[in-house]
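User: Design a sequence. Structure:
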């Protein structure tokens, strides 16, 4: 019996995220499928919305705008930080992704943009922010979930 994807469903699928220029940013095709629970925050909302109603065996190919996918690139998410905020054992160079802990205890990744002896410029935007994304999926399995009231 096939169930449509709905809130709290456990979904197993293959997916690919491709940029406008054809660069594949992520793909599970040819690898192990990916399983997650709808609504748990694993996928950004725009990607989840594209899945509702699909069932095992269905495929979907959509082009999502930056606003529908990972958001626009926000200059307010670029921060200057003192060089002393980075431990000596952490490699700090342009392009390096560094993990930070928020005051709430959540992990946040930032990409080093540039640095000098006193400061480091870190971009906390999602790496795919500002890009249109071609989102392709093949649904492998859907298990209905219990939605909490």
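Assistant: Done.
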């Amino acid at each position: 019996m096939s169930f449509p994807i709905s809130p709290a469903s456990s979904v197993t699928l293959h997916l690919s995220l491709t940029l406008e220029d054809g660069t594949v940013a992520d793909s599970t095709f040819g690898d192990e499928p990916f399983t997650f629970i709808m609504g748990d925050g694993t996928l950004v909302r725009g990607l989840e919305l594209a899945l509702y109603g699909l069932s095992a065996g269905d495929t979907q190919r959509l082009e999502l705008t930056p606003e529908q996918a990972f958001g626009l690139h926000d200059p307010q998410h670029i921060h200057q930080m003192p060089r002393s905020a980075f431990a000596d054992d952490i490699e700090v160079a342009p392009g390096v992704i560094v993990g930070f802990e928020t005051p709430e205890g959540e992990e946040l990744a930032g990409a080093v943009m540039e640095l000098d002896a006193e400061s480091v410029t870190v971009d906390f935007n999602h790496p795919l922010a500002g890009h249109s994304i071609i989102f392709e999926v093949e649904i492998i399995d859907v298990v209905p979930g219990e939605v909490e009231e």
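Residues 75-123 form a domain with the Thrombin, subunit H fold (CATH 2.40.10.330). The mean pLDDT is 91.
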